[in-house]
Write a structure and sequence with these properties.
The chain is an alpha/beta fold. 49% of the residues lie in helices and 11% in strands. Helix 12 links the parallel strand 7 and strand 8. Helix 4 packs across helix 6 (99-109) and helix 11 packs across helix 12.
């Protein structure tokens, strides 16, 4: 399958390894990964902050970059960005776009997936040949859980990883408190939610807390670092890309 890869803003600027791991994983599974160089932000930040007209050029660019019929699917290592493309882009196109934009959005929306959705629902695979001999707990991010409704797809993928010690995260479906600008506008509430999440993560004794969104991992990882928990954060794609012949080597976490 020819699969377009959308990097996302955080992937491009702060967490490129999650993007690279997505490409490595899909190539290992025998697929051709395409990276349109003209891709930009999906516009989620603008919409979530109330600026719905401003992201029209971004929505149009996404449709143009990934609308080529030769691209059979589009994947992104982010449930929130996938949720934006699948839900917000249509709203923006209907309110502020023209017929061409509405048509383009409909085309790309139908073939855009978060990583676990693509693997399980489209490629029909749960065992990707990964190897990760560490204790891991999984945080289901809000957009993947509530907007995309990926359910237990990430857990199915993790359970099939060779040598992994997967432990359940208490109150896993509770938000970590990030929510983009929510963490800035409601800092006290965000910090309280994060404290609860950190207590549950550290209580598992996990070496790694994983998720499908770098944004949530940034928030949780920052909190873990400040309390010197000794637990690292790692994107789901990085675990799935790790193999016996090319294992992911964990960096030392703050203690």
């Amino acid at each position: 399958m020819r699969i377009g890869l959308f990097a996302t803003c955080l992937g491009d600027t702060l967490y490129p390894d999650a993007v690279k791991s997505t490409a490595v994983l899909l190539a290992r599974l025998g697929h051709e990964v395409l990276f349109p160089p003209g891709q930009t932000c999906c516009g989620q930040m603008h919409v979530n902050t109330g600026y719905q007209r401003e992201p029209v050029p971004l929505v149009r660019n996404y449709a143009e970059q990934f609308g080529d019929a030769s691209i059979e699917a589009v994947v992104m290592p982010s449930g929130s960005c996938a949720g934006s493309v699948r839900h917000q882009h249509e709203i923006i196109a209907e309110r502020y776009g023209d017929a061409a934009l509405r048509s383009g959005v409909a085309t790309v929306k139908a073939k855009t997936y978060e990583l676990s959705e693509l693997l399980v629902d489209v490629l029909d695979v749960t065992d990707v040949g990964a190897y990760f001999p560490h204790r891991v707990t999984y945080h289901p991010t809000c957009h993947s859980l509530r907007m995309l409704r990926v359910g237990d797809k990430p857990l199915k993928l993790l359970r099939a990883v060779d040598a992994i010690d997967l432990v359940e995260l208490p109150e896993a479906d509770a938000c970590c408190g990030f929510g983009g600008t929510f963490a800035l506008k409601n800092a006290d509430t965000s910090s309280a939610m994060l404290r609860d999440k950190l207590a549950h993560v550290t209580g598992t004794g996990a070496d790694v807390c994983t998720a499908g969104d770098s944004s949530c991992l940034m928030h949780i990882g920052g909190g873990l670092s400040r309390i010197k928990a000794g637990t690292r954060t790692l994107h789901l794609a990085q675990i799935l890309a790790s193999t016996r012949t090319a294992p992911h080597v964990l960096t030392e976490a703050a203690r």
